[in-house]
């Protein structure tokens, strides 16, 4: 049965392709039980805005599969800290491998930081909360992979998709998407697709990034390594690092098999509901344009950062502590080696962390508020802060 469905997806979706933004803008009026959208844009800000528009506007009773590919970018979760999750300092200094540029995006869902490029396909499913579990959509993807012979694929306890690396085969239920013949403790599985979620207004969104044929696999840890890690105490969500690998599959094939599995699982025919292609023209939709502008804004990317403290204890400088709340420096404390405790409330200064162009100038201004700070090794402290909390200087959105 499945091969015939896959053949239909290949032929009918090409013949009956629906394009233009009007199909997306009218999504709230659909009477269909299932829709499939595919993006022809690689702009991560746009694709996440289209995904959010679908989440907000698809009516109850309608499941939606959305497939898209992003250009190189680092995407952090809604409640994460870019200074803790991203290698901002190296980016500022122009130390990207192979001269590559990448975008920094804060998405609206939770979860950890991920790296996207043209070797990934991102998949998302929106549905009613009554039809949602944190495993359902990942299980759908695993079934699609197994039909293509990727028998080591399974859903793990974190709702991610992994490839087991065990060598000894065991007897298991072939229909169980949470175990394979190679599941065991003898080898750590490799993650090939993470998961993130958003739940609101009785609707649920589950999306993931499938590593298929990324040429930057060896650089992912570089993109997601911050020099401030170990120095920051933070609220919010820390990413859980896992070994990763490519599935080894063409992006078009992956999209086809996931679409076919979605259609089979939810009885969505290609005749009644052909693939809807979306692209940059969707920026003409007010809700998409609004979401796009929000995702690219500094207030969203930086000022949504949960509260954190940077603590450093450089040699011969005493202890230095910087408090940041919603991306704004609110507190500076210094316990020098040879003088009394200094604490400054900087909340009234409105010092947005991503706009601090000179730590040395900031510390010099702070020293005028408390004479004890005049004895501080300002140049040395400024150098430490510049390395750990650099001004991002990312490309203008």
Give a written overview of the molecule.
- It contains twelve helices and 18 strands.
- The protein is of the alpha+beta class and 397 residues long.
- It has a six-stranded mixed β-sheet with strand order 10-11-6-2-1-13, sandwiched between helices. Strands 12, 14, 15, 16, 17 and 18 form a six-stranded antiparallel β-sheet that branches. A three-stranded mixed β-sheet has the order 4-3-5, with no helix packed on it.
- Helix 3 packs across helix 9, helix 6 (136-147) crosses helix 8 (251-266) and helix 11 packs across helix 12 (378-388).
- It is globular, with a radius of gyration of 24 Å.
Short note summarizing the structure:
The protein has 397 residues and is an alpha+beta fold. It has 2 domains: 2-298, BirA Bifunctional Protein, domain 2 (2-Layer Sandwich), CATH 3.30.930.10; 308-388, no CATH class. It has helices at residues 2-15, 22-25, 44-57, 82-85, 88-92, 136-147, 220-223, 251-266, 286-296, 298-301, 359-367, 378-388; strands at residues 34-39, 63-68, 73-76, 103-106, 114-116, 120-128, 153-155, 161-163, 190-193, 196-200, 203-211, 232-234, 276-278, 308-312, 319-325, 328-335, 342-345, 351-352.
